[in-house]
Task: structure prediction
Amino acid sequence: MRAVRLLAILLAYFSVLAVVAWFLLTRYPALQNMLPIGSAQHLITQPTGAEGANAFKPVAKGSFDHVATIGGSIGWMLAAVLAAFLASWPVSWVYMATRSEDAYDQSLISTILVLPITVTSIVIIVQNSLSLAFALGGIAGAVRFKNSLKSSGDALYILLSVGIGLAAGTGAAELSYVMSLTFCFSFVMLWLTEYGEREGMKRYMADFSPGVRGTAAPLPESMSELSKPS
Result:
């Protein structure tokens, strides 16, 4: 069954990322102050009021104190962009595997992968600068682009991509990892259980078991086959 195989691939992918991160941070503790990680705790525990969530102040917990050099800054930014990509990559697998054939949109897959990188870069630029934030808003308003999404479900992918980029850009790459993991497994479980399905309904996700109920679909030989509609 393709849904079970996709679950296994996602579990292996996120497990490998977690083990690699744990090994590097355990082996080289100094990396924690040089990578875009650790800000999630600050975001969750920061006080309310003038000095809390509405204050314009550094979000990353001391990370910028350790990237004062050009090399350190470039390394921090590259790590943030890479973290955004690694978190969004499995999301594209879920879309390719679950989206129904009649509304499948390849451009959305590119958006899922590239939008988090773009948002991460923008957040790094405008962080703690109110004037830059307003300038960006003016530029975006002048450009005026429009993309018609085919379903509200597609909007969830866009919203998640923006969230991943925001998390990575503010030095909370671990939060982007958690968002991606919970999103992927939630969507796959909805697909696996066919929650809310009714006969004759308009499908958002593909039917992973078409025909006679209980007949298992053949296992795909590679990740590319997960993108093929049922």
